[in-house]
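For the sake of clarity, the format in which proteins appear in this thesis is described at this point. The fold follows as a row of integers, each naming the local backbone shape at the matching residue. One such record is shown here in full, so that the layout can be seen directly:
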Amino acid sequence: MNLLKSVLIIALFSTTVRAEPPKPVNITVYRSPSCSCCGKWLDHLKANNFNVKDIMTEDVLAIKQKSGVSDNLASCHTALVDHYVIEGHVPANDIMKLLKSKPKVIGLAVPGMVNGSPGMEMGEHKNAYEVVSFDKDQKTAVFSSYAESNN
């Protein structure tokens, strides 16, 4: 009986439990070939376990219109992930939060091009900004807020 007990203890301690790394999240980004900040946002996504399909187009506006992005929510690029639209420089952690919580919205947006949002870092100063969710009726709600900082 002691031999069996010893074998079980050795087996228990010799077996390592390996956590599977999280699977990359597939995202398709539509952007203008002349926009450099979009490339920096793509780098941010890749650094946060996104598998990016980068589609350069001269007609990003058509993608925005087809995806339900109004003029007041528009930014320089539009992405599609799962069944959601991501407009502008939305942080990767907010996209992951969206995918986990699965709210009944079209997507998320950071309207304009806010200094300090991912891909728009320029020096130490970061402006305050909000990530907003939007629905099919263009109703928006604050999804996340980021404070101004002067690191």
About this structure: The chain has a mean pLDDT of 89.
